[in-house]
């Protein structure tokens, strides 16, 4: 299996590293626009192979998409990360152009690839990649839900003093403050979380999760990469190993949850064809309302992208 990661910055290099050391692909091609940057990162990861004992070949290139030809999966991480004081939506004008041109190059050389978008604002960059690629929605998706859920699970594990491995959860909606937590579907070793934690503590964890990305931006001056890079690699693994994992993934909704044409995080089954199935949960009225708010926000940013594209046409 061949996997390309576009953007050799913090998230892209972390993703490539996880793909290599866990031998998720035979070959990982790292692409960046900055001369020599991807080559250097790929060489460094390759030189770690004899120490950490893996044989995934890692190769770096500067903007040479011919080297990415026939990739099975492509992860797009290219684009600006936010700085303190910015929202993810503030990145739209710069990142839309980057995601569009990268996607054009990807489909030119790997028409059968499955594309995983990571660049922000995530839901709308998934939209950008989807309309540019013209691929079926099952093959263009965004990574955010695994990360948001992981933050929620990590905070719960800390609060309950249990292993994060035993916490199962799902979050839905856009990647941002309007994400939709689903405590009803959160369990700790099979036990509903509501039996183990006071409501106010759970609510505080949900609020912290919603601004989990911003918490890290404030601490580091740029956004996170270890968990995001690993989350993208986990999606690649589910696809290349046809694991049929159940993850929250951003996809174009086509009638599911009563929503049509908006890109939102929902639980899906991920396997060799990409999105094998969108799972429709029976949401209660409060959850439906939260999802509607999230839909409205993402749609506004999608409209902003349409305006940018119209102005550039
Ligand atoms: N979906 C999610 O949950 C997350 C999304 N992100 C987003 O991922 C993106 C990358 O974040 P970082 O890796 O921290 O940024 P970074 O600045 O470390 O790396 C981005 C890389 O993209 C490269 N690049 C820019 N234009 C390019 C082009 N046209 N072709 C190829 N490479 C290009 C840059 O040279 C740079 O090396 C940001 O937009 C960030 O907001 C970050 C974390 C989580
Ligand atoms: O917060 C950011 O800008 C990056 C991101 O999406 C995250 O870490 O959740």
UniProtKB/TrEMBL annotation:
EC main group: oxidoreductase
Q: Which reaction does it catalyse?
A: (S)-malate + NAD(+) = oxaloacetate + NADH + H(+)
Binding of NAD(+) occurs at 7-12, 32, 95, 118-120
UniProt superkingdom: Bacteria
Keywords, A to Z?
Answer: NAD, Oxidoreductase, Tricarboxylic acid cycle
Q: Where is the Lactate/malate dehydrogenase N-terminal domain positioned along the sequence?
A: 1-142
Molecular function (GO) terms for this protein are:
L-malate dehydrogenase (NAD+) activity
Location of the active site? 175 (proton acceptor)
Q: Where does substrate bind?
A: 82, 88, 120, 151
Per UniProt, residues of the Lactate/malate dehydrogenase C-terminal domain are 147-303
Task: Provide an example Pfam family for this protein.
Answer: Ldh_1_N
Q: What is its EC number?
A: 1.1.1.37
State whether keyword Transferase applies.
no
Q: What NCBIfam families does the record point to?
A: MalateDH_bact, PRK06223.1
Write down the PANTHER family for this protein, in alphabetical order: L-2-HYDROXYCARBOXYLATE DEHYDROGENASE (NAD(P)(+)) (PTHR43128), L-LACTATE DEHYDROGENASE (PTHR43128:SF16)
Q: Member of which family?
A: Belongs to the LDH/MDH superfamily. MDH type 3 family.
Report the function annotation for this chain. Catalyzes the reversible oxidation of malate to oxaloacetate.
Q: What is this protein called?
A: Malate dehydrogenase
Q: Which organism is it from?
A: Pontibacter rugosus
């Amino acid at each position: 299996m061949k996997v390309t990661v576009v953007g050799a910055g913090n998230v892209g290099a972390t993703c490539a590293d996880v793909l290599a050391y866990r031998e998720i692909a035979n070959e990982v091609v790292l692409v960046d626009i900055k001369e020599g940057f991807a080559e250097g990162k790929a060489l460094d990861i390759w030189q770690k192979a004899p120490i950490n004992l893996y044989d995934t070949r890692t190769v770096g290139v500067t903007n040479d998409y011919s080297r990415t030809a026939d990739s099975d999966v492509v992860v797009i991480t290219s684009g600006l990360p936010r700085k303190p004081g910015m929202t993810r939506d503030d990145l739209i004008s710069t990142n839309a152009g980057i995601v569009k041109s990268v996607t054009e190059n990807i489909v030119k050389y790997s028409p059968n690839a499955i594309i995983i978008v990571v660049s922000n604002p995530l839901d709308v960059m998934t939209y950008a990649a989807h309309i540019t690629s013209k691929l079926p929605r099952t093959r263009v998706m965004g990574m955010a839900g695994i990360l948001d859920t992981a933050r929620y699970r990590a905070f719960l594990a800390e609060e309950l003093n249990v292993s994060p491995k035993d916490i199962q959860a799902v979050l839905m909606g856009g990647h941002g403050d309007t994400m939709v937590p689903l405590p009803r579907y959160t369990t700790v070793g099979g036990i509903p979380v509501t039996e183990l934690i006071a409501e106010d503590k759970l609510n505080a964890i949900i609020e912290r999760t919603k601004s989990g990305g911003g918490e890290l931006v404030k601490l580091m001056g740029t956004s996170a990469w270890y968990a995001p890079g690993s989350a993208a690699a986990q999606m690649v693994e589910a696809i290349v190993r046809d694991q049929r994992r159940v993850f929250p993934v951003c996809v174009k909704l086509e009638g599911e949850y009563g929503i049509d044409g908006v890109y939102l995080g929902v639980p899906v089954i991920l396997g060799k064809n990409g999105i094998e199935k969108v799972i429709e949960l029976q949401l209660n009225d409060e959850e439906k309302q939260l999802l509607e708010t999230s839909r409205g926000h993402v749609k506004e940013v999608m409209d902003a992208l349409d305006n940018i594209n119209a102005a550039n046409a």
